[in-house]
Amino acid sequence: MELIWQGVLEALRLILSGDPGVLRITWLSIQISGVATLLSLVAGIPAGVGLALARFPGRGLLVALVNTGMGLPPVVVGLFVSIFLWRSGPLGTLELLYTPAAIVIAQFVIAAPIVTGLTIAAMQQLNPKLRLQFMGLGASRGQVLWLLMREARLPLLAAVMAGFGGVISEVGASMMVGGNLLGQTRVLTTATVLETGKGNFDIAIALSVILLALVFGVTYLLTWIQQRGRTS
Amino acid sequence: MTIPILEGRDLRVTYGDATALVVPSVEVADKEVLALIGPNGAGKSTLLRVLGLLERPASGTVRFRGAPVPWGGRETLTIRRRFACVFQEPLLCDGSVETNVALGLRLHHRSSGETATQVRVWLERLGITHLASRRARTLSGGEAQRTSLARAFALRPDVLLLDEPFAALDPPTRAELLGQLQDLLRHEACTTVFVTHDREEAMRLGDRVAVLVDGRVRQVGTPAEVFGRPVSEDVARFVGMETILPGRVLASQDGLLTVDVEGTPITALGKAGVDEPVFVGLRPEDVTLRPRDGRAVSDSARNRLEGCVAAAVRLEAQYRVEISCGPRLVALVTKQSFEELDLVPGRQVLATFKASAVHLIRR
Lengths: 232, 363
What we know:
- The complex is a heterodimer.
- Chain A contains 11 helices and no strands.
- Chain A has helices at 2-16, 20-53, 59-69, 74-85, 100-124, 129-135, 141-151, 153-168, 172-178, 188-197, 201-231.
- In chain A, helix 2 packs across helix 8 (153-168), helix 5 packs antiparallel against helix 9 (172-178) and helix 8 runs antiparallel to helix 11 (201-231).
- The two termini of chain B are 34 Å apart.
- Helices cover 27% and strands 36% of the residues of chain B.
- In chain B, the strands form 4 sheets. A 6-stranded mixed sheet of chain B has the order 6-7-8-3-9-10, sandwiched between helices. In chain B, strands 13-12-11-14-20 form a 5-stranded antiparallel sheet. A 5-stranded antiparallel sheet of chain B has the order 15-19-16-17-18.
- By secondary structure, chain B is of the alpha+beta class.
- Chain B contains 10 helices and 20 strands.
- The A-B interface holds A 127, 129-130, 132-140, 143, 147, 150-151, 229 and B 49, 52, 54, 77, 80-81, 83-87, 89, 91, 93-94, 103-104, 107-108, 151-152, 155, 161.
């Protein structure tokens, strides 16, 4: 217990004193996971809307693949992204391995199926006749899509939360494709693993507290927006 | 001849291998209310969606003011914006009643001034001004459907398309809203296609009625024509002729026909050749029941059949009684008559009906 208590105290000191190393790691985590989540929304929401509303051969298979992708183990993603970005790999010439961009790519691969899958579910829980009703009031195709997404905004926000929560907290892929290089690719999760391995529990606890606070802060903000929409 | 505002030509809708709708021709005249009636699954709503440019038929053309409507693209949207639809479910958006009534106007990019005016007018005309700021999801079924109607009327459409708008409402709300819609349609003189499976709604609202059965239009005419003179067995059955019996004309004299129905001669008014196979149709309200052992009562009914009660079912305010008298007849009697005559199964009765009440349908 003493170890934990000391760790918490040291964590508070590091956070409150604005330790530059901790701040740099935190800021990098926010940037990487933020960009990865944003990209997964840009790709996942249109893909999810399309898969939910369109009817075409092979759609069922695609939905099943997306749903499988929602449970992709980060280490498997890390492995395949590493292979692709490896010097002799298909994208080796880009020289992205062990850069923040590599972590963004890996986190995007993890988050995109989550966002897509939850978008499909969000759109499919709408009354299917709603689309016909909007068309029957003179909505263009774009207006129909916008209105449907507006009606599904509460579950869509849940998709954003799940996507961000999934990538900010994963460690395997970031470690494998980022290399945990100090000042370059060291993020909150990889730093926590490293410090725990070295027995620096105080720093590890400080990083964990920041990670938890970050996840809680973002989720709380999105939940607030979501619930305000529900009750206003 | 005036050009119909909306027409369907050679329409065919298929789902996989199944043909859901085959309509060689359907026309909606300017300012008329065309009621599409028929049993569940008859294709009424499908026809409405096709005419409303919401569903593309496998083949055929929809014409608006005489010109064929192309499918897809800006031109279809422009024409679709001359229409407004109301469905069985109110299908309101998350938001206030006011926002919902304004939705169509906003989609049409109408000015905020016009939108505010139309919303105010139609909230008032549907009697929902007091609900303007209420959240749509908290409305009762009747209030929600009023909102949906206000949303459609606010667009001042050239054609209003209503798909069973009262089917999910309780009877008092339905009766109230039906009366209100009747007044609105009369006042606005708005061309309307109204889908219903309720005969009373079709009779009250429709200037003309089209009966659909199994994806085909079986009869089109005024309510009096369709309900009074159905042209086929399935139309007759749908418009409320519960007794439909196959027979053959035995004799024809002075406009009176004698038809043999399962060995029982029935007198009918009409024209048909001797030996011609026909259906004899009877509305249950046209059949009168008397006690068989009572005093002989003379009346003008040409048909007097002796039989016994086979079954009796209580309806809302009446009893539906099946009489076995050779052929099987259905009669409607009041609760008082049912009790006075003690119409339990097996009771001997005399069923009478006029020759003019018999409706002959060619087989």
